[in-house]
């Protein structure tokens, strides 16, 4: 970066169809969302090779409707963005990225981040959805990339009972791929299921999963375990037993990635994003 | 077909993602829905190479959620379909086709057609939808295959005024690719626009187009003409003038295929399908 120029932090709101991506995070020789967007950024911002920090590192095949990331630019690079037809750097950023990114990833919005904002550490909540078709008549080739086609009908009462049992503050070690020294204690704020009655999702069973943060593979493990109960293959007793496992257990099948979409990342008011980032970092450092 | 065996007519209800198909109708060396489904049928029905008759011959890139087709089989081939695990020919048909068809086309239902049923000529109504995103924040990579991304915001009042002016019984020659000797008089039962307020289509502008039947390229020409008014590029005067053109006019831009979906084909009660088919055939013969 140009020395002596103060940085600006830019918040990006983005969406992607995860089907043809090997997940968010950059990996050598693989097509990843981070890799594709960072390449696009390098083409529109002169002299920069910006790095993205993301709120939710989605796995291969997982989609995002409301993903959030940030990057740092020099103030001069930011100010140089507008052209003749587009007046603000914010609009120019979205416009130019749209011109260079492929159709399966879209930056919806670029904005100057408030002081102390960190896409990952300032977040107070992540919300995911998981879509399942459990009846032949609700299968649809047009939504096959975002909907799991279950073989057996789902019992909504069983799904609800099972997911209720997992909600709240607890150790989710049984549902997390282990990472040395990091905590698996999380607050699962919501884990609910409904059968949609209208619109393009009509007839589908849709889960909403909200937590302050998720550890690796946690959402898909939670969904996989509860689907086993909802399909009648397992009972609540089994779920309570496997949920107590002190580490990730092969008894829980991870649900397929394509049913999962990161819908929203929630941040506190602007004047609290800095302190939230600080307290999250401090907690993670303790792990 | 085996001689001496009475035929059965099978109705198929099917859906497809039109993105990777060169339309419905079989064409040499091109991947078409009809071609792919007929190949699948040949694999599951012994000794047959069944031909499909369809309600709506969709163009390349157009989708279908509620397409209907029929085929004829010998009664013995139909009766031979069930296997050990699937008891009825209807269920066996869907199950086996599901095993051989690719992911972008799905036969949802197979059923014995009522006496005199013809997927094309018995139909009394076809319903299409057309989806448009006219605001950057409603663009979504996950729905990019079924939603047109318009450059300019749409005025719902103008769209409604324009489409109202085209509704009813009239000669749609201006909107139809000409076919020697066939009528272009149709009854446009509904042509309405709404902005969705919830669900996966939230924020999108969606047209509903219903008619007894459509001539070739008619739905996309109607949508293209009305979008020009809704975007403010043309006015109602212009629309009224081009609509009077005695033949297809290049002044009307055909809307892109990917926003269009055949949602439903409506048939009369079972005891009327035969007479409806007869009267449609007679009318077409007059042309």
Average pLDDT score of chain A: 91
Largest sheet of chain A: 10 strands, mixed
Order of helices and strands of chain A: EHEEHHEEEHEEEHHEH
> What's the domain count of chain A?
2
Number of strands of chain A: 10
Q: What percentage of amino acids of chain A are in beta strands?
A: 25-35%
Largest interface: A-B, 27 and 27 residues
Oligomer: homodimer
CATH third-tier fold name of the largest domain in chain A: Alpha-Beta Plaits
Low-confidence stretches of chain A: none
CATH superfamily of the largest domain in chain A: Pseudouridine synthase I, catalytic domain, C-terminal subdomain
The radius of gyration of chain A is 20 Å
Structure description:
The structure is a homodimer of 287-residue chains. With 287 residues, chain A is of the alpha+beta class. Chain A folds into two domains: 7-121, Alpha-Beta Plaits, CATH 3.30.70.580; 125-265, Pseudouridine synthase I, catalytic domain, C-terminal subdomain (Alpha-Beta Plaits, 2-Layer Sandwich). Helices cover 26% and strands 25% of the residues of chain A. Chain A is built from seven helices and ten strands. The first copy, chain A, has helices at residues 33-44, 75-79, 89-100, 156-166, 218-230, 236-243, 273-286; strands spanning 7-16, 53-54, 63-74, 105-112, 125-133, 148-149, 168-171, 185-195, 205-211, 260-266. In chain A, strands 1, 2, 3, 4, 5, 6, 7, 8, 9 and 10 form a ten-stranded mixed β-sheet that branches. In chain A, a hairpin with an 8-residue loop joins strand 2 (53-54) and strand 3. In chain A, helix 4 packs across helix 5 and helix 4 (156-166) runs parallel beside helix 6. Chain A starts with 6 loop residues before the first strand and ends with a helix. The model of chain A has no long low-confidence stretch (mean pLDDT 91). Chains A and B meet through strand 4 of A and strand 4 of B.
């Amino acid at each position: 970066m140009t020395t002596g120029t103060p940085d600006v932090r830019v918040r990006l709101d983005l969406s992607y169809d995860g089907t043809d991506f090997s997940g968010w995070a950059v990996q050598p020789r693989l097509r990843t969302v981070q890799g594709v967007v960072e390449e696009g950024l390098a083409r529109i911002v002169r002299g920069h090779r910006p790095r993205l920090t993301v709120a939710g590192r989605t796995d291969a095949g997982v989609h995002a409707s409301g993903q959030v990331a940030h990057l740092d630019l020099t103030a001069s690079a930011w100010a140089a963005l507008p052209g003749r037809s587009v007046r603000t750097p914010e609009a120019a950023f979205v416009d130019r990225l749209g011109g260079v990114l492929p159709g399966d990833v879209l930056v919806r919005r670029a904005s100057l981040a408030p002081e102390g904002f960190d896409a990952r550490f300032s977040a107070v909540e992540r919300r995911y959805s998981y879509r399942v078709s459990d009846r032949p008549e609700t299968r649809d080739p047009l939504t096959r990339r975002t909907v799991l086609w279950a073989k057996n009908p789902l019992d909504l009462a069983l799904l609800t009972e099972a997911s209720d049992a997992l909600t709240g503050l607890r150790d989710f070690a049984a549902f997390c791929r282990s990472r040395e020294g990091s905590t698996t204690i999380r607050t699962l704020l919501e884990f609910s299921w409904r059968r949609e009655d209208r619109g393009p999702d009509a007839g589908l069973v849709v889960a909403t999963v909200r937590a302050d943060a998720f550890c690796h593979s946690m959402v898909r493990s939670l969904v996989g375990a509860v689907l086993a109960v909802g399909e009648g293959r397992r009972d609540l007793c089994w779920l309570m037993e496997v949920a107590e496992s002190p580490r990730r257990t092969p008894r829980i099948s991870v649900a397929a990635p394509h049913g999962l979409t990161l819908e929203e990342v929630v941040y506190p008011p602007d004047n609290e994003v800095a302190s939230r980032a600080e307290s999250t970092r401090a907690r993670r450092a303790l792990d």
